[in-house]
Amino acid sequence: MPRNDVNTLIDGASVDEVYLLSDKQLRANRVGDLYLLAQLRDRTGQISGLLWNVKEAEMARISAGDYVRIRGKVQLYQGNLQIILTGIEPVPADQVEPEQFIPAPSQDTERLLARLTEILYSITDPHLRRLMQEYLEDPEVSAGLGRAPAGVKLHHAFHGGLLEHIVNVLETAVRVIDLYPQVDRSLLLAGIFLHDLGKIRELAFQDTFAYTDEGQLIGHLVIGIEMLNEKTPAVAEALDEPFPSETLLRLKHMILSHHGSYDFGSPKLPMTPEAIALHHLDNLDAKVNEFSSLIAGDPNPQSNWTPYSTSMQRKLFKGGA
User: Are 252 and 245 in contact (CB under 8 A)?
Assistant: First the structure.
């Protein structure tokens, strides 16, 4: 029997299917009764599910990241599809096929790795080029790049998404760098590669996507600095001279400031040409991908608009019929 994939659901349809519970919230209605707001996902998209009159102890059986079997009916509400649930139960992970719930890479991973290597080996600064080599020859890094997403929910949230994001930003930089001769090309390319690399330790991505303990407690910015500190001694040994202190300082600053503002988690604001260039190139690729993912994953083909996105603080226009 074929699956009831999210992108096939229509108003009024009855649903009895397994989905990934990507988010779970218990909320209170006007009279104080609890209800469940669940975000249900498969490889084709995501849809909200609501279960009325729940008890906290009952909902403790399920957590975000679990597979769940839900029963309910699809409803069109204020132009958006949702599922009014009548039941939700956990499903053991060994009883599902994980590839049905996580979007596949949109590009060939081997091709992306080859392009990544080509661009990074075009760096002319000898210390930065050798640093890139140390990373590329690290099995943890190469394996992580092939599987890690760039985010848990929207930002390139698929296996290999981190690699695709990094290569996209590198490709953009290669195309525009000649317009900004004041930006150091080698430093910018190295910073782009390093800026999100801590996510291979921040995120768990074997089956479902979630944060590791290290990711929750430290985060990819600090992890990226730790990884850099681990690599520079090997560069100094290989070249038989110390790694330049200012170059190292500039790289660390790029990693720590690439979110661009304190509100978005950067402990420092960009203070060098390379750092501000990295921030805007990174943000461009992330935001275009998030918009595209929200539009492509909207389960309601009858609406010209996506549901309201709390992270974006807006609906997105999909286009008319």
Answer: no
